Each structure stands twice: as C-alpha cells, then as structure tokens.
Amino acid sequence: MKRIVAALIIFILIPLVSCAPDTPPVHEHSFGEWTAVKEAACLEEGLMERVCACGEKEIRTVPALGHEVSGAVCVRCGKKASKGLKYTPGEYFDCYTVTGIGSCRDADLVIPESFFSKPVTGIDENAFRELSGIKSVSIPESVKKIGRYAFYGCKDLMILGIPDTVIEADSCAFSNCTGIVSLRLPLGLIPVGGGTFSGCTGLKNLIIPEGVKNAGAGMFSGCTGLASVSLPDGIDGGWGFSGCTSLTSVTFPADAKVIWSGAFAGCVSLTEMKIPEGITEIGGGAFRRCKGLTSVFIPGSVTSIGKEAFKECEALESIVVPDSVTVIGDSAFEGCSGLKRAKISGNLTVIGQRAFVDCSSLEEVTIINSVTRIEARAFRDCKSLKSVVIPDGAEYIGYEAFFNCGALESVTLGSGLKKIDQRAFYLCKNLKTVRFNGTFEEWQKIEIEDFNSPIRNAEIIFAGQE
What we know:
Elements: H1 2-18, E1 35-38, E2 46-51, E3 57-62, E4 69-70, E5 73-74, E6 86-89, E7 96-100, E8 108-110, E9 114-115, E10 118-123, E11 136-138, E12 145-146, E13 159-161, E14 168-169, E15 182-184, E16 190-191, E17 205-207, E18 214-215, E19 228-230, E20 236-238, E21 249-251, E22 258-259, E23 272-274, E24 281-282, E25 295-297, E26 304-305, E27 318-321, E28 327-328, E29 341-344, E30 350-351, E31 364-367, E32 373-374, E33 387-389, E34 396-397, E35 410-413, E36 419-420, E37 433-436, H2 440-444, E38 447-448, H3 453-457, E39 459-462
Parallel strand pairs: 7-10, 8-11, 10-12, 11-13, 12-14, 14-16, 15-17, 18-20, 19-21, 22-24, 23-25, 24-26, 26-28, 27-29, 28-30, 29-31, 30-32, 32-34, 33-35, 34-36, 35-37, 36-38, 37-39
Antiparallel strand pairs: 1-2, 2-3, 4-5, 6-7, 9-10
C-alpha cells in the first residue's frame, strides 16, 4: 500500500514540476536610428527619439543651433548681427578680432562675420569675461580662434552656437558658464590649454558628433550636472570629465586604445566600470577618487595600469589584474580601503611603490611568479592582511613594503629572494611563521636590512620540512 501511495505522490508531483513556468529571458533593448521629433531652431532646442522593437523609446535633446549669420543677418530667422562691439585689426589689417562688448547691449549676442568688409576671425581673451545679461552667443563661420577666458563666468549664458569651422578654443574659454544646459561640440575644435567648458554645472545634454577628434584635458571637468557621456569612434586626447559628480554612464569609442590620465577622476557616481576590450593603457589617475566604484573589469588587452589609476576608490572590493598587464604604476590602488581581494596575474614584473598602501580591508593577495620586485611601501598599512605568498621569482622586497601589516601571521618567501630592505616587515607584530622555499644555506645569503625583527624572530620553515 505504501508503494502505491508513493507512486501516486510521484505521479502527481512530476506534472506539477514540469508545468512550472520558465523564467522569462531578460530583454535587452535594440534601438533603431535617431529620428527628429522636433527640429532645433536658433534659440529653441529640438528633440529626437529612437524606438526599440518592444515599443520602449529614448528621447534626446538637440541643442539650439544659434544664429547663422550671412551678410549681417541670420539666414534662418532674420536676426541682425550685433552692433557696437569692440574690435582690433589684424597685423596686416586684413581681418578683425572681437576684443570686448563695447556699447553693445544685446542679450542675444550675434558676432558678425565681417567688420569694415574684412572677416572677423577671432574672439580675444577675456573679451566677454564675467559679463551678465548675455543669454545666447552665436559665432560665425569666419571665426577660427576663441581666446582664453573669452566667455568665462557668463552665468546667464544658456545657448551657445559654435560652428564646425572653429578650430581653436584656448584655456577656460567657456568655463563656469553655469547656465548652459545643452551643447553640441564642433567637429574641428582643438582645445588648447584645457578646461574649455569646465565648471559648466548646468550642462546635462552633451552631443559629441562623429568626426570630433579631441576632447582635451579637463575639457568638461566639474560639469556636475552631466549624467552620461557617449564618446564617438575616432576621438582622441584628453577625455576630460574629472569631477563630473553625477556621471553614471560612459560609452567608450570602439577603436579606443587609451583611457587618458585623469579622465574620470572624482566621478563619484560611477559604480561599475567595464573597460572595453581593445584598451591597452589605463592612464595615471584615470579613475582616482571614484568613491562609488564597487567593481572594475580590466580586459586582457590592457598592458599598463598607470600611477594612481584607482587611488582612493574606497568602495572597490576586489580586483583581478589580467595576464596581459606588465606595469602597475605607483599608488595605483592606494587608499582603496574597501578592497578585500587582489589577484595579480600574468607577466607583471614590478609592483610599484605604494601600489596598495592603506588598503585597510585587504585580506588576500595572490602574486604570480613573474614578479621580480615589490617596491617601497607597496602594501604598507594593509592592516587586515593575514598571509602573503611571494613567488620564487621575486628578488627584492622594498623599503616598508609590508610596514604595519598588523594582522599578518604568515609569509611565504620565494627561493630567489636576494634582499629584504629596511623596515619591510616592521610593526608586523603578529608574524609568527615564515616559510622559505629554499634551503638554510640559501636563507643565509639573503640580505635582510635593519628594522625587520618580525622576520628575524619568526619561526623559519625551510623547503621540505613540513
């Protein structure tokens, strides 16, 4: 009877299990091309949208175009070019540069393309610096150069029309123009000096079109309203988005090879960073002080991690350095106080100075056999580190390399070790056991400098003794 009941239970359960609904697959949007919903005008923004097959829409703001002046009149709306501006003639009186506001009181500033029948080719440094009341600026195609601080601190400025023909913008040309919300970067612009649009805290919509070649150092630093950035293929140099504290999303160019120094430093709202395949170098300070960053994926194409690349990324919990990496720069992971695990793989030969200093939560480090040098203070003040294995290929442990690693209980030293520098293991008060992958005779040949009493006083276990 029990067998019959059991059989009935199995018979009933099997259909119930087999009829359980499958977990639906996660839908990934596949959007079509952008199409215009509302065309941008001289002083009005436009709208574009793209639609997924599922019906989901994305909306993008198109910056106002600014006035397009020809013959002292806008070809789109008929607005006349501003009068009363101050000018300075070129060396041979064949062109003019705008040097100041003069008697002009226009809120919608329209730079004329000519003055006394000669082309206006530049806007001088400090020309409109910290002027109030200017709400829009339209620059003609004749202008090739915009001087440093030309529009610095024009806080009422909301609409900026820069044609693709502008070649050069000097340091901080539009810095601290906090009213600008939308901006399209000109195709031919080459930032000189840096900080071209730094401190434009109101900027939320940035369009970098295909064909732009340069987004120079600090170009958009401190643009705290910017939440996402899409970098087109072919762009090179700078990627200056340091201090963009609202930035949560970055789309990298498919052909990018380098993440530039300081590119995203202080972007505290970045939480995940998947560095794309093809990147070979992570520049110095590239993600320094990204304090919200919890995970980073480094692909097998990366060969170099620069100085301070991830310094003070306090929320980062683990890091895997792939086989391809040959250089970890000084202070690369310094102050990553939440880092618990670090795996250093592959072809790395040197762990740089202060590389993991003050990683106070670091419990586990795996160092591979290709490492020959651990430089000064590399793991200083890693107060949670309990054990470390140093491979046979390592020849040198630097000054204060494991200084004040108070939880360190055991160390394995490779047979190729030649020198332990001063204070390398100083204040490692709980160090009890040292395993040496060599003989007593080889141990005697190691040069152990002063202030390494924890090593000298520990139990030494030689190869084959256990």
